[in-house]
Amino acid sequence: MSLSQGPTLPIGFDEATLQQFSGGLNTQQLLWLSGYFYGRYAAGTGEVAPQAAPTTASASATSVTILFGSQTGNSQKVAKLAAEAARKRGLLVEVKDMNEYAPRALVQERLLLVVVSTQGEGDPPIAAEEVRTFLLGKRAPQLPDLRYSVLALGDKSYLQFCQTGKEFDQRLAELGAQRLLERVDCDVDYHTAAEQWIEAVLEKITGATTTSSPATSTANAIVKPEPVTPVYSRQNPWEARILESIQLNGRGSSKETYHLELDLTGSALHYEPGDALAVLPTNEDPLVEEVLRAARLSDTAPVQLENEALPLAAALASRRELTVLTRDVVERYATLAPYAQLQELLADTQQLRPYLYGRDVADLLTDFPTDITAQTLVETLRPLPSRAYSIASSLLAHPDEVHLTVGALRYDAHGRRKHGACSSFLADRVGLDDSVRVFVERNEYFKLPTDSATDIIMVGAGTGVAPFRAFVEERVELGAAGRNWLLFGNPNFTTDFLYQAEWLQHHKKGALTKLDVAFSRDQAEKRYVQHAILENARDVFGWLENGAHFYVCGNKDRLGSAVQHALTEVVQREAGLDAEGASEYLRALKKQRRYLEDVY
Q: Exposed, middle or buried, 546 (CB in 10 Å: 0-12/13-18/19+)?
């Protein structure tokens, strides 16, 4: 029905003008404007305007809060996707970072979607600590009017898989909130499960069957196609050619570290310092053969994976995780192999943890042999995930390239020589001009300060120096005024000073204001980066008081906790605080996103 068939238009308005003004608006925008003009009308007249008949759009204009707790940004990405999908359904959406959310506001929420990750063995992301502490504490209010659903992100290689999400889900239920949908736990490759959760939970909220946005008028409009930028992902990786592969350690080193340079020409692939490059590896042939022998299966046995038929050996090489043994794999295998010891392991984390450590799929099949078909084997095993490496370069300094610093993982365990799936792939099985499948994994928080005049302190051990090479290169290219301080540790000066010439050149030119190193094996008493922090306590605290950002990259167990303890001691000593006060100072740095970790 045209406007001319409705109420008579006021003088000065005509149908063409109103169509031109409103033709491109969607249902939600039209609904908002109607409310706005109604409010203007009521304010001007003091009268109550006639009620319009309820519409589908107005009925669905329900307010939803999407609360995310993220360490690297994956939860934030999912929250944004959920918000976009919700708005297309006509919902009013607020997306809130747990880092900036007042926990007591939970009592005011009516529809809540929680997206939260777990770090390592059950730790919450720094951003979620305050909300989690409040929720699990005695002051948490009853929430009988709340409906909610939780999406948990995690990594099945850890026993406390998705622990933070499980805690949020259970505690909200204990406080009387009603689940819209059962919690969904996502592994490293979370995208498909997250999309399915978003679709299902929004259907629960709206009762809708489609996520299509309302049609908008394009009459008399010329639509120019937007240039399409390829989106690279696990499903659509970029084939990056290897330009350079150099072993960084000197002869006699106990470590084996490689600097790799990959070609991005033609990809339009973009990254920032602090991001990671995900690499899709293949398993080495000897390991595939060991698994086939242990399972007593033929390499040519046919299997079906995602509507694709292929030989078992090919599926094991490129599609299944073989080097890491996880709890979920043991649980599925235990239903096929009737061993009491397997059940005992699964029932006792204290026994399971040491069993999993250093073992792979071949070990499990050897320890608990059973008859199994090729198809059942591939369905029991975990999909082969990508491996992410902190990017060691700046695009400004190296256009159309991305650099990595990779430590080859090799060790002996349970009577066999073991190799890291991706590190040995990059070190041993690909060479110059070979291609590897890659995509960028953005780390939303491990980033340089937005103000280039801000000082930064970078603490890295071993390959943890990689992102700091990118940081300094970027700051040099931008002409950043902020000071840069690197504290680096490794076993020996002569063999393990990674990128030594570059760091010394940066220091000479003033791009690196301070450079402190700690080589643990060069003296009788081992000396690590945390000792260098304590030795420079006054300067460290002075830089922090001046607004510096503090970055840590390296092994979570060996470096992360040691650096936190050292920094807490520095604050106690220099600020004259007790242990609790110093810990609170460190928590405040984390809350302000001035203490940032990329630990693994």
A: exposed
